[in-house]
Design goal:
The protein is mainly beta. The protein is 9% helix and 43% strand. Strand 2 and strand 3 form a beta hairpin. The protein is globular, with a radius of gyration of 15 Å. The structure holds thymidine-5'-diphosphate.
């Protein structure tokens, strides 16, 4: 699976409503150890602005919409996430920024590891330097 891949999540619909499901090892290649979500996001707020060294994540717009930019140090991709029936996979060594949140946006993130600040690149320059070093 490549960062930026869209993962369709099965949705079972009947007259009682819809049920979407996501199972590790079936829809995702990694086990989920942590779930967090962004909500009540003020207008013009920018979230993310970091990359991870080893973490695997999947991101779902559970409500509303927002824009996601991914940058692996070589190429950029942009998405508008507004559907709770698919997830975006984001692997290690990908800089991400989230912006243009609607007032009702909820961004849920499934993560392969517990929170660990040492897994972050919080400086874009440090991230690019690490990408260059890995390429050598
Ligand atoms: P931050 O990484 O800045 O959020 P984002 O980059 O997704 O916009 O996290 C905000 C704060 O929350 C920061 O102090 C770290 C803390 N935090 C946790 O304690 N646990 C977590 O799982 C995450 C993602 C963040």
């Amino acid at each position: 699976m490549q960062s930026g891949d869209l993962i369709p999540l099965p949705c079972i619909r009947d007259e009682r409503g819809s049920l979407s499901v996501l199972e590790t090892g079936i829809h995702f290649p990694f086990p989920i150890k942590r779930i967090y979500y962004l909500h009540k996001i003020p207008d013009r707020s920018v979230r993310g602005a970091h990359a991870h060294k080893a973490l695997h994540q999947a991101m779902i717009a559970m409500n509303g919409s927002f824009d996601l930019r991914l940058d692996d140090g070589h190429a950029q991709k942009e998405y508008t996430l507004n559907c709770r029936e698919r997830a975006v996979y984001i692997g290690p060594m990908v800089w991400r920024e989230l912006c243009n949140f609607s007032a009702d946006a909820i961004c849920m993130v499934l993560a392969s590891e517990h929170y660990d600040e040492t897994d972050y690149y919080r400086s874009y320059e440090d991230f690019i330097q690490a990408v260059r070093e890995k390429a050598q």
